[in-house]
Design brief:
eight-stranded mixed beta sheet, 11 helices, alpha/beta, 8 strands, globular
Amino acid sequence: MPHFQSDGVEIAYIDEAPDAGAGAAAGEVVLLIHGFASSLRVNWVETGWVRTLTGAGYRVVALDNRGHGGSAKLYAPEQYGGPVMAEDARRLLDHLGVEAAHVMGYSMGARIAAFLALAHPRRVRSLVFGGLGFNMVRGMAGTGPIAHALEADSIEQVVNPTARTFRAFAEQTGSDLRALAACIRSSRDPIRAEALATLRTPLLVVVGELDVIGGSAEALAAIVPGAEGFVIAGRDHMKAVGDRSYKARVLAFLDRVRGGAGG
């Protein structure tokens, strides 16, 4: 996997060309930003997203967020946070010479995508927030227990069920637990609804029906003029990621944006 330097931090990424003959979206780039304790491989490759998008004619770029996957592991909370990590994504676009991309983030990645669009609106052609709805503006509770769970000597010491789920997922993905604890302890203030309301980028918000972490897709979409909300039937936060209806809705959304209906 190639790497580049983002303000001195080594970031791993992939840059996948569209399938031969899949020319409908020729020249269009989709940037994928994964969620907390995940990686580009777990979030996007193993769930079939990269294959789906390249098969539809898109060039797909994805990065391992700092502290995750093949990127540098940092242990100070101030080295993380949505605005900081959004600049990693922006610098990747610079590194690859990509002027603007469609951007999809999942969970923490959706937060990062929001900060990217707010700071650099001309670099973002469209937005998909996956796995994070109204809790983007309401804020995420319980980050302290998650950090403690990651720092515990053993998962057997973790009694909080939500925190235990995150610890189990982090172990499953082979993550650096100390780096993740620093990441979750970083500034996670909610994004103000008034700030999101200024977005003029076409936006689709997608959250599983049973997702208790993300909050309502429709409530968040109602904040942003022209945004769409989509609820994935019968899916929770973890199982929504690779859902077929999620993929179909995103492809339809991107097709409308390319056709000019989304702005």
